[in-house]
Design a protein that fits this description.
Layout (H helix, E strand, L loop, with lengths): L6 E5 L16 H14 L12 E12 L9 E10 L3 E10 L6 E14 L4 E2 L4 H10 L3
Antiparallel strand pairs: 1-3, 2-5, 3-4, 4-5, 5-6
């Protein structure tokens, strides 16, 4: 399932991520999505970008849990663009277990990212350079 249009980040499961049921707490998956999202955004947003002027607002997060992740699992988070609209784009995610007794997809998710001008406090169109790159990376 890995693709050159997606970005994959290895994840270290920390002891603090695990709850009383001996699997990773549901809220931790959003953190893992964020790690993959930031790595994905590096593909088209320059390091010197002024986030105080124009940036993104995370408007929606979704997670579907498929199988639990445990402390000693080897996992990775994958992110890709699944839709581009006028003022927003969707990023989709997968958490993969890459080894052990049952490798496979542990969770899938989606975020809606809205482009925002922080100086005017208004939504804006996806900047043209971003749209150009995102359009080449869209995976359904």
């Amino acid at each position: 399932m890995l693709n050159e249009r997606s970005t994959t980040v290895p994840i270290q499961v920390r002891f603090a991520d695990v709850d009383m049921a001996h699997h990773v707490h549901n809220g931790v998956y959003l953190h893992w999505f964020e790690l993959a999202r930031m790595r994905f955004l590096e593909r088209f947003i320059p390091k010197d970008h002024d986030w105080k002027a124009q940036g993104l607002i995370l408007a929606r997060n979704e997670v579907d849990y498929k199988m639990p992740v445990r402390l000693n699992d080897t996992i990775e988070a994958e992110a890709w663009c699944s839709a581009v609209r006028n003022k927003s784009f969707d990023l989709s995610y997968r958490i993969h277990r890459t080894g052990g007794k049952s490798p496979g997809i542990c969770a899938v998710g989606r975020s809606v990212m809205v482009c925002f001008d922080y100086t005017t406090e208004r939504t804006i169109a996806v900047p043209a350079p971003w749209r150009e790159v995102l359009s080449t990376l869209v995976l359904s």
